[in-house]
Design goal:
This protein has 7 helices and 15 strands. By secondary structure, it is an alpha+beta fold. Strand 12 and strand 13 form a beta hairpin. It is elongated and about 70 Å long.
Amino acid sequence: MADKRLPQMALTTMFVLAVGIPVTAQERGGPGPEKLLPQVPGWKLAEAPRTYLPASLFEYIDGAAESYLSYGFQELSVADYKNDTSPATLTVEIYDMGDELTAFGIYSAERYPGSRYLEIGAQGYFEEGTLNFFARGDYVKLLCFDCGGSAESVLKEFARDIEKRIGEKKGGLPRVIGLFPGTGLVANSEKYIRQNVLGYGFLHDGYMASYRASGQEFELFIIEGKDAPEALKMLEQYLAAQTRNGAPVEKAGPGYHVRDRYAQNAFLAAKGRHFVGAMRIKEGGESVGLNYLESLLSAVEN
């Protein structure tokens, strides 16, 4: 059967059907999200906390639920707080994503490189009235309303309380993030994409990062297979799909060069259990793509 780009709705449906009974936070060795709800002096719950499971997540975040489900969402606890002496209110959302990698995945999908980053959890950031972070398998979102100039300090106080309840931070950012070349990397642009990488259903467990170098803006990716044969198969499937789509494919340096409407000039190769590449390289800048491909191949293991 021909490989085709799969719509996100279909992929989410496939995932939900395949995931079966979710693993709870207690089963993975950590507290459930409701047990992580903070207790901060001067603040009290405005109402009883609410809990959402995969089947009911749409009731709370509607269209955004598909993205969370694709990353393995397990359970959400939501609590609204009100301040004792002012009209300020604060909402806490704690998403149990199952493990640290999927928590990073949804966190990385929503963060912006230009945000102000904080040492909270494995990583966090503050924007006006909002503080988000992830730690272990939890993704935490805090929103402060009518907090005025104290918004950042209030949000940090709530975040630190939750951080303590989560406990051990573990390893921070995923190991693969450290394999991306540092030269030209747009800080905090790295993402983990669990499925449908580059728009293809046969590509999974991909990491993307944005770059600015040599007058170009482009992206690098690292896709992890379970072993070397799977990584090679993913490369071959991608090249075959490009050929069927009429995109020229040719050998180039240690890998292949593809001219694609979506990826523009892409340089690709497989090494060990990794399928790597540079994409959206401008015409005339092909040497940049080849250089970065070689850097990626040097960084990944056999």
